[in-house]
Design goal:
The protein has 16 helices and 14 strands. It has 415 residues and is of the alpha/beta class.
Length: 415
């Protein structure tokens, strides 16, 4: 059960100083990517930077980085131990996400970072990350309908929750591709508390140096948000522009249009696409990418799909699937630290896929067998395109499966 509020996290952080400046990023889609771009830019500019994003993909500590490197296992465990002891001693009964947030902030203090890039977990106003004390910039990315049971049933109600990360006198960067109704909510709140809203801009010398065709439209907008925020937060006198271009071009963001090999599990030589699209808006983005880059008149797409309970299945399926496609539905496993997250039954996903026109003969119920779902997809697709999508928790399970399979393979080869 998710219980939003700042009471518990504030008690957890009572003994964790926050001398570092923060860039706080909220939104429905793109906020993790914006954080990755910001972290890369700041690191390339010589700033000691910490990044905290969620959810984690393979291990709990991989959502915390220092200078774009995953925090060391010993450092994570030491900080986490301190937070857990504090939670127990003071009887705080913090949630798993609050404990992880406090651990990240404790690590940032111990590592003496200059700037922390922090992604909101859920919403904004009452999210644990909103206990940040020293915000330099806030960012609100593309808004959409998601988590309505917690945040509201309209995009405007959700925008009010996201706006809660803003602070008086702290500039807020807003993704300019948001609809006018969202912009009005954010700007009205900014006037109320006394701060400025700066719309992201794709007109800059920095973006002019990048090949736009290498980026999907949503990636370009995310990059514009990140650079606008960087420009506000980076206060050193020298210009690091020449270092930013390679930093952005070399970025690797797992689970977002990620190209990855699955040979260790399926024997397939061709790579597949792994994407965490999990709501209507992100599915539309993925659908445009697949239609533009992967589909041909001959090529059908083979999908491996999962979803969390409560998602708008038909809204997600419609931009992704075409009648000739093949679909394996699978159930992701228990989510570490988030017992309230439940997977949608595969038969419900297949029923939604069938309603988009995919024929029964091209549907496969993989149950809880993620390895089996990939093997079915590889056999069905032959050398054609395969896309794994619908949930970041499925992405996590696939990445974990591949890591474990490759570890076993390496051990076998060394014998």
């Amino acid at each position: 059960m998710i219980e939003l509020g700042l009471g518990r996290i504030s008690r957890l952080l009572k003994y964790t100083p926050q001398p570092w400046k923060a860039i706080h990023v909220a939104g429905t889609n793109g906020k993790g990517t914006i954080c990755a771009y910001l972290s890369a830019m700041l690191t390339a500019s010589g700033v000691r930077v910490g990044r905290f994003t969620s959810p984690h993909l393979i291990d709990r500590r991989d959502c915390i980085t220092i200078d774009d490197e995953t925090v060391k296992k010993w450092a994570f465990r030491a900080a986490e131990r301190s937070v857990l002891e504090r939670n127990k001693k003071d009887g705080i009964e913090a949630s798993e996400f609050e404990l992880l947030t406090a651990t990240a902030f404790e690590i940032f203090y111990r590592e003496k970072i200059e700037i922390g890039v922090v992604e909101v977990g859920l919403g904004g106003r009452l999210d644990a990350t909103n206990a940040l004390e020293n915000k330099a910039v806030t960012v609100i990315s593309k808004m959409g309908l998601d988590h309505q049971s917690f945040l509201g049933n309209t995009i405007e109600e959700i925008a009010r929750q996201k706006a809660g990360i803003m602070r008086a006198g702290v500039p807020c960067v807003l993704d300019k591709s948001n609809p006018p109704s969202v912009q009005k909510v954010i700007e009205d709140y900014a006037k109320k508390i006394g701060t400025d809203v700066i719309l992201s801009s794709t007109e800059s010398t920095f973006l002019d140096q990048l090949p736009k065709d290498d980026f999907e439209p949503h990636q370009w907008e995310n990059l514009a948000c990140a650079y606008t925020a960087f420009h506000l937060a980076y206060t050193k006198s020298d210009s690091p522009l020449h270092r930013l271009v390679p930093a952005v071009q070399n970025i690797d963001w797992p689970g977002r249009l990620q190209t990855i090999g699955v040979r260790s599990v399926t024997g397939r030589e061709e790579t597949i696409i792994l994407d965490g699209a999990h709501n209507v808006q992100s599915a539309e983005v993925l659908g445009r990418y697949v239609d533009g880059r992967l589909r041909t008149q001959k090529d059908r797409i083979t999908w491996v799909l999962a979803a969390s309970e409560g998602k708008e299945l038909e809204g997600i399926m419609k931009p992704l699937l075409r009648p000739g496609d093949c679909v394996a539905a699978v159930q992701f496993g228990p989510v570490d630290g988030m017992p309230w997250v439940q997977a949608t039954a595969p038969e419900d996903i297949l029923a939604a896929a069938a309603r988009t026109g995919v024929v029964t003969a091209q549907l496969h119920n993989a149950g809880t067998d993620i390895s089996g779902s990939l093997q079915w997809a590889a056999a069905t697709a032959s050398r054609g395109p395969i896309v794994v999508a619908g949930s970041l928790y499925l992405v996590s399970d696939v990445l974990r499966l591949l890591r474990d399979a490759e570890t076993l393979q390496d051990q076998f080869l060394k014998q």
